[in-house]
């Protein structure tokens, strides 16, 4: 019998996700077909705002009808089909229809404006574009993800990658509350349909917790949630247990579009501290190591370095962008995440921050995540993010963006600095504090730090150059 616990090669920060189960070599469309054979009458999808409810059998019938329509359009295997949409039943329908015909689905950020959309359509060579609601290594996804830096790159994913992430692995009912993000409608839909599990970014979870706490709503059927997509404050994770006590299975995941959207997570049986204060350990059959960004050598347990991963989750590459692909994946097929992390002797990983977000103030390294974690401990702060801004003398300074629980609360920059001075080294204390109502987010709920930096410079009158 195989030891199912992750294997760590001590004393180095390398971990492999061992498993008794093998990997699946099957197309997404076949996963759906197989599910229909056993669970045709079980609910698969509910779209509250569209007033749609579908069983697996009905979803499969809709997929077959759409696939026939795509054939009638003259689309052939390998052609690219664009999908420019927020949450919708038709999103899933299009996904499976493309998979069934061997078409490449290109998911496009629904927030894109005309010039951005034009760039993606041309770069991805889209043959047909769907806009629902809008006025083996067979290629499956060309996903222009909700990135947080610069020009979008299409991560080229396979059926093999997505099929082994558990899509259609067991029957479950997916609930879509509304076309665009609205916390009130999400909570109402969760209660109406007695949702048991929730997946969301930290920003979304914070909004839900704040809404539940201030309105007196409860989520009595919620058993667990998985959060990730951006740094998860420890205080937020523990707050879930306080505000929604029946939600006991809380876990933090880590991943990237380039890594199939998921790379690490803890087990339900892991300790509370490891489930809430780490991003877990590598998924089954995945390898993860922490390396020195300068030398590329694997660091010792507990040391900080860049997180690299390798395995079935990995993208084929960036669509029509060999230069970026070579920069992201080395000659031994390790994906370089750009995230700074540590690993303990059991393979549990903590994310420290982004290599590109590291603030260097007068020669001192400052990890924004550390300052953000501290700010979340302030009783009046709902959410907080930190970025570096230019400084003539020191090179960079720390700038904190803060969203208060009560917008009418009067809190000063001096009070925030004093709170920090008592708890962290002087050079990590924010030089600038901006009180905001919201943060620049991608549609997936990730904070765009580069936009924060640009806007901070403009607000504070700082010269980026």
UniProtKB/TrEMBL annotation:
Q: Which UniProt keywords apply?
A: Ligase
Q: Name one GO molecular function term.
A: medium-chain fatty acid-CoA ligase activity
**What GO terms describe the biological role, i.e. biological process, of this protein?**
fatty acid metabolic process
Source superkingdom: Eukaryota
Every AMP-dependent synthetase/ligase domain range: 34-132, 183-319
What InterPro entries does the record point to?
AMP-bd_C, AMP-bd_C_sf, AMP-dep_synth/lig_dom, ANL_N_sf
Q: Which reaction does this chain catalyze?
A: octanoate + ATP + CoA = octanoyl-CoA + AMP + diphosphate; a medium-chain fatty acid + ATP + CoA = a medium-chain fatty acyl-CoA + AMP + diphosphate
Q: Where is the AMP-binding enzyme C-terminal domain?
A: 370-446
Pfam entry (one): AMP-binding_C
Q: What does this protein do?
A: Acyl-CoA synthases catalyze the initial reaction in fatty acid metabolism, by forming a thioester with CoA. Has some preference toward medium-chain substrates. Plays a role in adipocyte differentiation.
Family of the protein in this entry: Belongs to the ATP-dependent AMP-binding enzyme family.
Supply the name of the protein.
Answer: Medium-chain acyl-CoA ligase ACSF2, mitochondrial
Query: Lineage from the top down?
Result: Eukaryota, Metazoa, Ecdysozoa, Arthropoda, Chelicerata
């Amino acid at each position: 019998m195989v030891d199912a616990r992750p294997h760590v090669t001590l004393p180095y920060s390398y971990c492999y996700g061992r498993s008794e189960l093998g990997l699946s070599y099957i197309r997404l469309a076949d996963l759906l077909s197989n599910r229909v054979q056993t669970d045709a009458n079980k609910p698969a999808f509910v779209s509250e705002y569209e007033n749609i409810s579908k069983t697996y059998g009905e979803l499969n019938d809709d997929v077959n009808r759409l696939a026939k329509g795509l054939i009638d359009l003259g689309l052939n295997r390998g052609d690219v089909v664009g999908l420019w949409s927020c949450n919708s039943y038709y999103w899933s329908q299009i996904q499976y229809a493309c998979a069934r015909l061997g078409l490449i689905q290109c998911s496009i950020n629904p927030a894109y404006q005309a010039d951005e959309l034009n760039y993606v359509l041309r770069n991805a060579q889209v043959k047909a574009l769907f806009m629902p609601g809008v006025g083996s290594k067979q290629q499956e996804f060309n996903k222009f993800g909700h990135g947080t830096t610069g020009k979008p790159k299409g991560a080229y994913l396979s059926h093999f990658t997505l099929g082994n992430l558990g899509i259609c692995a067991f029957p479950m009912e997916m609930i879509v509350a509304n076309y665009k993000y609205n916390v009130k409608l999400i909570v109402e839909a969760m209660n109406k349909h007695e949702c048991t599990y929730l997946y969301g970014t930290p920003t979304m979870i914070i909004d839900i917790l704040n809404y539940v706490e201030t309105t007196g709503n409860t989520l009595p059927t919620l058993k667990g949630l998985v959060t990730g997509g951006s740094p998860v404050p420890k205080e937020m994770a523990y707050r879930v247990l306080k505000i929604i006590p029946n939600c006991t299975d809380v876990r933090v995941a880590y991943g990237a579009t380039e890594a199939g959207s998921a790379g690490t997570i803890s087990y339900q049986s892991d300790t509370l501290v490891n489930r809430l204060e780490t991003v877990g350990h590598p998924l089954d059959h995945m390898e993860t190591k922490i390396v020195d960004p300068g030398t590329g050598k694997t660091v010792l347990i507990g040391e900080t370095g860049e997180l690299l991963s390798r395995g079935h989750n990995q993208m084929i590459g960036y669509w029509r962008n060999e230069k970026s692909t070579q920069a992201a994946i080395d000659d031994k097929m390790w994906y370089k995440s750009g995230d700074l992390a540590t690993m303990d002797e059991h393979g549990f990983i903590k994310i420290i921050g982004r290599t590109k977000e590291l603030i260097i103030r007068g020669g001192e390294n400052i990890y924004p995540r550390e300052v953000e974690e501290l700010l979340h401990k302030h009783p009046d702060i709902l959410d907080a993010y930190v970025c570096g801004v230019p400084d003539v003398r020191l090179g960079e300074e720390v700038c904190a963006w803060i969203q208060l629980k009560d917008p009418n609360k009067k809190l000063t920059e001096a009070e925030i600095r004093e709170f920090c001075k008592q708890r962290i080294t002087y050079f990590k204390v924010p030089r600038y504090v901006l009180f905001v109502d919201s943060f620049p987010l991608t549609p997936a709920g990730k904070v765009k730090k580069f936009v924060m930096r640009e806007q901070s410079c403009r607000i504070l009158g700082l010269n980026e150059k």
